[in-house]
Amino acid sequence: MDVLALEAKTVTGTETEKKSTPRPKPKPPKKAKRTVYFEVEILDKKTKEKLLLLDKVEPTATILDIKALFHKSYPKWYPARQSLRLDPKAKCLRDEDILQTLPVGTTASFYFTDLGPQLTWGTVFLTECAGPLIIYLMFYFRLPFIYSPKYDFTSSKQWIVHLACMCHSFHYVKRILETLFVHRISHGTMPLRNIFKNCGYYWCSAAWMAYYINHPLYTPPYYGQQQVNIGLYIFLFCQVGNFSIHITLRNLKPPGSKTKKIPYPTKNPFTWIFWLVSCPNYTYELGSWIGFTVMTQCVPVGFFTLVAFIQMTVWARGKHRSYLKEFRDYPTLRSSILPFLL
Fold first, then answer.
1. Residue 190: which of 106, 126, 104, 283 has the closest Cα?
2. What span, in angstroms and rounded, lies between the C-alpha atoms of 240 and 170?
3. What single string gives the DSSP state of each residue in 153-208?
4. pLDDT digits (tens, 9 = 90+) for 271-283
5. Model pLDDT for residues 197-214, shown as the tens digit of each residue
6. Going by C-beta distance under 8 Å and a sequence separation of 6 or more, which residues neighbour residue 138?
7. CA angle, 272 as apex, 322 and 290 as ends, to 5°?
């Protein structure tokens, strides 16, 4: 009986200890982080007048979101027409920039500029290319009021004239098809006023070249067939190269993406020039016009090639600097447009 009583006391003591042991207190729920909203004011760049004050703007809002809010108050200024800057002399902010990542406090000031009516880049490219194609053919078929009336709707006896027309037409048809089916343009729009400047340059240049190449008094190149063949081979080679580069650049950027990557050569031999040049599409474009100049031996074509080279060099050097700035591992051997030279 004493043993049983002792066991009973032991069990009872154990139960008493369990009851007396305090239970751990549950952890208090974590407090939700407080969202810090921004106050955004939009000022006119020229007059510094306050145009709009936006209250409680999400910190994750993009510049495009802010433009959309601004558009609701000023319907005539749609987002593509707006330019927002942190300082009147600073660069325009990108649509994808996020508010909380910008060097601003909880009260942010943006300076607004009206970019004017906008057109899509695709529309501009198509207009630029369709004009020279049509204008050149007008001179080729010798429509009335271009040359002497006796030459209206006549055909040139020089075979190089017909070859030049085929090459010129091929070039611009290729550019139109690339605009429609190949290019993925990252920039959405451009000012409407630019189309007059761009089209004026391309259309007038095409008319100047076409007038002399299709003129009834036009004479073949000095070295004849040999010179024409050399120019033709250069032209065709560079046209294929230019198309190859455009395909490579297209494959580098998925649809709808704005991420930038370093272009590298592929299995296509025409892309191997990427080892030496940042913008080989301009290199091949220049080569095409050099070939066309050699083939036609026409001063206006040579002048157009020179001007195009200067302009493409400006574009290529800007693109090259952009690559060096964005990518630390960018190949140092590359030049902008001409290997080892420029």
1. 126
2. 12
3. T---S-HHHHHHHHHHHHHHHHHHHHHHHT---S--EEEHHHHHHHHHHHHHHHHH
4. 999 999 999 999 9
5. 889 999 999 999 999 999
6. 146, 210
7. 80
